[in-house]
Amino acid sequence: MKKLFILALLWVIINPLYALSVSNLFSSNMVLQQNTFVTIWGWGKTGETIKVHPSWGDELSTTVDQNSNWKVRIKTPPGGYRSYDISIQSDTESIELRNVVMGEVWLAVGQTNITSTFEEYVHKPKEVFERASYPNIRMMTVHPKEKGYVHEDISGNWELCSQAVLDKWSELGYYFALNITEKLNVPIGVVVQDWGDEPIDSWHEEEILEQELANQDKDHPEAQPFTFHQYDIHHHALMYQYRDYKFTGILWSHGKDQPNKKGDYKKQMNTLIHHMRQQFGKIPFYYVQIAPYKYKKMTHGAVVRDHQRQLLHIDKTAMVVTSDISDIHDLHSKNKDEIGIRLAKIALKKHYRVMENELVESPQLTKVVKEGKKLFVYYEHSKGLHFEDGDQGDFEVSGEDHEFHIVKAKVHRGVVVLELGKIKKPKFVRFGWNSRAVPLLVNDSGLPASCFSKQEILNKNNKAL
């Protein structure tokens, strides 16, 4: 932290903060979170009075502190298509923010799949560009800065959806925003940023990583270490810049390279969610499960997918399973439109409480019960559960020999029934346990079930065998 403090101090000294400025998160054409208090901040000359006047409310004033910082908290009105202005003034300078609207603002972060743009695809959807004028869908694409350093501000600006800019927009972010605004009839803003192929632990704050290292379980030396990338601390080049910003929720897409790297992904991602909620409050965290891919190790991809699945017990989380729309030969699937739509449906049902009768989540494993010579695999979100194309070869059961054997499976009234055959004392069940597996156990909405490993088997009284 001493290094980071010194760098922050140098940033204050060498940057022209004597001029009035406001964080780039706040620019003309932005969306502010509706019906709440938002913090707007910037920099100026120490001791100066800063006046901030939103056109929908009263003027507020504050004084620039000794570190050249200022900030104010503003009450925002209900969302809608009316545009507002914000005037920011010092003793000698002024800044005008125009065409500001109130609505819902989401943060979309992770690796490059989150920011994949329309221009990356050979066959662009013409119908999207023909009707691309949606002035109440707005996006900010944040450009990465040098990692390992404190950056007080982002690099980016808010844009209105139009044919002129859509080519450079995140496809996932666009489809997410489009489907939300069509249901809620309020402007939707998405702040999008990725940071390449870095591991998940480099998104954590330094103190969080140090604590995790200190608490690492020494009783399990065979576990892969919780790695600490001392010079890749993204938090100080990324998340710190959003420190006081008001988001509705977070969209997360990360892990496509994790099967080739060390670390306990479940533990790391759990830490990430906890840390982000310390910063932004207990807001929704919806994430994309990595897709099947031809990784070098046959099960490493399945391990990461299962780690992601096991975090669904955390409140206000949900996961989009992508095994049905993936390409095992391409880490950058071209189906970002469908992923954005699935995320939007989850947000509409779980957060906004619309589409309440819709089935928007994949079948989610709850338990496996043994009765006689059969195992019964129970799922949530299982209405219309069935195997696509007669595919039933992805369930395996281990017996006393500790070897997994493929078993016959069928679906009966929303429950998967496994025939044990010659396996007399079953120990565990697993499903789709291969990095390249594309199991097609789906529900009425065509959403696929996730893989899982070593699920404990219960008796009919729900006690472990």
Write the layout of secondary structure elements.
Blueprint: H1 2-14, E1 21-22, E2 31-33, E3 37-43, E4 49-54, E5 60-63, E6 69-75, E7 84-89, E8 94-110, H2 126-130, E9 134-141, E10 158-161, H3 163-166, H4 171-184, E11 188-194, H5 206-214, E12 249-253, H6 265-280, E13 285-288, H7 300-309, E14 317-320, H8 336-351, E15 364-371, E16 374-380, E17 386-387, E18 395-398, E19 404-406, E20 408-412, E21 415-419, E22 428-431, E23 441-442, E24 452-458
Parallel strand pairs: 2-8, 8-11, 8-12, 9-11, 12-13, 13-14, 15-24
Antiparallel strand pairs: 1-3, 3-6, 4-5, 4-7, 7-8, 9-10, 15-16, 16-21, 17-23, 18-19, 18-22, 20-21, 22-24
Helix pairs in contact: 4-8
Can you give a write-up of this model?
The chain is of the alpha/beta class and 465 residues long. The protein has two domains: 101-361, SGNH hydrolase (Rossmann fold), CATH 3.40.50.1110; 364-458, no CATH class. Helix content is 19%, strand content 28%. The protein contains eight helices and 24 strands. The strands form four sheets. Strands 2, 4, 5, 7, 8, 9, 10, 11, 12, 13 and 14 form an eleven-stranded mixed beta sheet that branches. Strand 20 (408-412) and strand 21 (415-419) form a beta hairpin. Helix 4 runs parallel beside helix 8 (336-351). The longest helix has 16 residues, at 265-280. The radius of gyration is 25 Å and the shape is elongated.
What descriptors fit this protein?
single chain; 465 residues; alpha/beta; Rossmann fold; eleven-stranded mixed β-sheet; eight-stranded mixed β-sheet; 8 helices; 24 strands; 19% helix; 28% strand; elongated; disordered N terminus
